[in-house]
Amino acid sequence: MIAENIASFKKELPPEVTLVAVSKFHPAESILEAYSAGQRVFGENRPQELSKKAPALPSDIEWHFLGHLQTNKLKMVLPYASLVESIDSLHLLEAVNQWGKDNSRVVNVLLELHVAAETTKQGFGEDEILDILFRADSFKYIRFCGLMGMATNTPEEETVDADFARLEDFFLYLRDLFPEYEDFKVLSMGMSSDWRIALAHGSTSVRIGTAIFGERSAECNNSSRSW
Predict the structure, then answer these.
(1) pTM listed for this prediction
(2) Is residue 226 in a domain?
(3) How far apart are CA 83 and CA 69, in angstroms?
(4) Hey, how many other C-beta atoms are within 10 angstroms of the C-beta on 94?
(5) Buried b vs exposed e over 159-176: b needs ≥16 C-beta within 10 Å?
(6) DSSP characters for the chain?
(7) Which domain holds residue 184?
(8) Is residue 175 included in any domain, yes or no?
(9) Which of 105, 112, 141, 176 has an alpha carbon 20 to 30 Å from 81's alpha carbon atom?
């Protein structure tokens, strides 16, 4: 079933859109089934899981970290993640930059823009992101690759559409304002329930979990982030 789901998404997604298979809470066997079907980009949102899975699975897997990252867990994530999609505070950004300096590595990140109605979701405001990018030179061990965002968790498609439209508009505004940031190309938005709406608003990367791997346990479904 996983292989069939991967094949279905590959047919539907434009070739320039990255499919991130969100494998959190799923065993290595499920990841290997997706891998055998040609999937190479996977997303995890718990540091402990990523630090256990990454060394045990094929080395050509590209791991994206998606969850809220605490600064005391950086050593469990940054050695393995090719992209940290969920930079949601200046404190975290500064800590990641320091880790990069200490380890002689430039870390690829997305800045998470808060657009959803829920106050429980993390992320920057637009002014905060502008402030960071205006002084990006002070983060010498960070490569700013784009934006990530999550729409409001609601069945009302008009609300989801408006959230993604705001993300798209701000992303394009930043691309125009900072043409010197050539790596600022990723707009990560869209999950199992809303990826088609996200594509209509220019998403370059969709994060799909349930529609690939199936439902998770009750404990997992209580997570604040539903993919």
Answers:
(1) 0.92
(2) no
(3) 13
(4) 14
(5) ebbebbebbbebbeebee
(6) -HHHHHHHHHHHS-TTSEEEEE-TT--HHHHHHHHHTT--EEEE--HHHHHHHHHHS-TT-EEEE-S---GGGHHHHTTTEEEEEEE--HHHHHHHHHHHHHHT-PEEEEEEB--SS-TTS--B-HHHHHHHHHTGGG-TTEEEEEEE----S-S-HHHHHHHHHHHHHHHHHHHHH-TT-TT--EEE---TTTHHHHHHTT-SEEEESHHHH----HHHHTSS---
(7) 2-221
(8) yes
(9) 176
Please check whether residue 14 lies inside any domain of the structure: yes
Q: What is the dihedral of CA 225, 43, 109, 78, to 10 degrees?
A: 110
pLDDT at 117: 84
For the chain, the domain total comes to 1
| Residue 62 in domain | yes
Cα angle 225-80-52, degrees, rounded to a multiple of 5: 75
Splitting the chain (227 residues) into consecutive groups of 10 residues, what average pLDDT does each group show?
96 97 95 97 97 97 96 98 97 98 98 87 94 97 98 95 98 97 97 97 97 70 47
| CATH at residue 48 | 3.20.20.10
| Rounded distance between C-alpha atoms, residue 227 and residue 219, angstroms | 14
Residues forming beta bridges with residue 142, ordered by sequence position: 107
